[in-house]
Structures are given as structure tokens and as C-alpha cells.
Amino acid sequence: MRGKGIHYDTGTHVGDGWTREVFDSSTVRSDMQVIARDLHCTAVRVTGSDPDRLTVAAEHAAAVGLEVWFAPFPCDLTTEQLLPLFADCAARAEDIRRHGGEVVLVTGGELSLFARGFLPGDDFLTRTTLLTEPGPELRSLLASVPPKINEFLAEAVGSVRASFGGKVTYASLPFERVDWMPFDYVAADAYRSAQNAATYREELRALHRHGLPVAVTEFGCCTYRGAADRGGRGFLIVEREPGRPLRLDGHYKRDEDEQAAYLRALLRIFEQERVDTAFWFTFASYRYPHHTDPRHDLDLAAYGLVSLDPDMSWRPKAAFHALAAEYAR
User: Fold this and answer.
1) Residue 239 belongs to a domain with what CATH number?
2) Of 54, 77, 184, 312, which is most buried with the most CB atoms under 10 A?
């Protein structure tokens, strides 16, 4: 695999709060050094909704020799609001590229869920809930997404290529059925769960039919026993009630070995299925710190390779060491 990557969150406002409240340049610089030196990554997908934060993180990543996937990731914006944001980010990414950085521009991710106008609902959580209610109505809704997504992405790619001279892609979901002709990579968020375990390799192989290099822009699982079977929905064990601190919806057992085993298994599959670049989700889950009370230990619902204390200091989990060993091979 050419690109050995990890996702790095700079902060996105989702639902009832930010995924990362505090953003400090010196901390980001230190994290990028850890990512390049200790984790042996060659690429980092920098995401978030604030272009200034994205730029700071991307510059620190480029400074330590990482290939930067510059990935604006807003939530609950309309398509009319997304286009100028992507154009701004394209100009910023081009500036880093012209100063010697290796940069890929990602024109958003999972827009059918995170943006307004592709599925019913004014907020991300409402749209996500639709996917938990299978049936004829859901199938009809999902079938309506590809024409709208592809119309928007064609416009977005034309806009960003006006100022960005590097490679461009989009972090997709399977049901979006993206037309990859305008792009340089086929890219998919590819979580394995009990639901798709039997067909997971076939899904990856199908991405090669477009004749472009394939990138897995997200893969990962949380840190509790049974999380591997839930894949990208593992975080849904967190209760969100207005006016109350976040907590888990039940009692779960920490299982860092399961998270590490999931990581190793998928990286081996990516090698065998000729994936060009893959990004573990994520370096740190800033909104989900560790707590001594198991019901409030949000780190169990975290995909991060590191466990955060409330003061944002961190320790590596088993998956941290697993990723480092795999990428060093």
C-alpha cells in the first residue's frame, strides 16, 4: 500500500457540539511529528469545518513530510454554502502545494448525510436516523441521492480545479454511487461490520472498476467489546440528552485488543485488494475522553488510537502500537 494514512480532526460542529473544542497550533505540530515519526504514517487526512484550522494542520503535516489530504468537512450546510467553502480551501491547498507539499484535495465527505438537501432533515442526526429504519421508503430515498450528489460534485470539482493544480477526490458512501470521471481517486469510507463482513472484499474490488487508484478515506472501530461488529455505527452507544452530560447508554467492557485486531485485519485486506491509500479513523476522538466511571467513559465509544484525559493529555492504546507496527513493516 502506497499511502499509509490516518485521519486527523481539527474540529467540526455536529449536532449539539464541536468534535474538537480546543485547537492549538503547538499541539498540532507535536501530533504531526508523532504521526510521521512514531506511527510511520506517510499520509494524513486533515478534516474539519474551519479553513483556518485546516490550513494550520496541513502546513504542520507538510513540514514533516506527510502527504496531506486537505479535507473540508462541514456539517449542515447547503450546497450554496458549500461551493464557496470548497473554493476557499482549494486556494489554501494550492498554496501549500506550491510551497512543496504533496496535497490531495477532498471535496467533502458523506455529503448525503452531512449536508442539507440530499436527504430529508435539517440536521445530521435526523438524517442519520433515516438509515436505521430500513424499508421501501428508505430504499426510495437512497435511490434519489445519486443524481443530486453527482450534479453537485461535478460543479464542485469544476470550481476547485480553477485554483488547485493537484489531485482531487471525494469521500463517498456506497449508496451515493458517485460518478468518478471528474476525479483522480476513487475514495470510500469503508467500515467493516457484521452487516457487510461477507461482502467486504467484493465491495473493495468493485471500486477498481473505474480504472483509478482506490483510497479508503475512513476505516476503524471503537474500543469496547463487540465494537468491531458495529463498524461505523459503533459510536451510537452515546446518549445525547439536552442539558445533560454525554454518557453511554449501557455498560460496556473496554477491549483495546479487539480494536487493534480489527485494524490489523483490515490493513491486510487492503494490501491484498490493492488499495492505494488508507486512513484509520482517527488519531484522537476529542469529544470522547476517558473517565473512571464506566458509564461516563466516552473513550469506549471513541475510534481514536489514543485515549484522552479531560485535560486533553493522552496515552496510546493497543491500536496505536498495532498501526505503528503495521506501517513500519
Assistant:
1) 3.20.20.80
2) 54
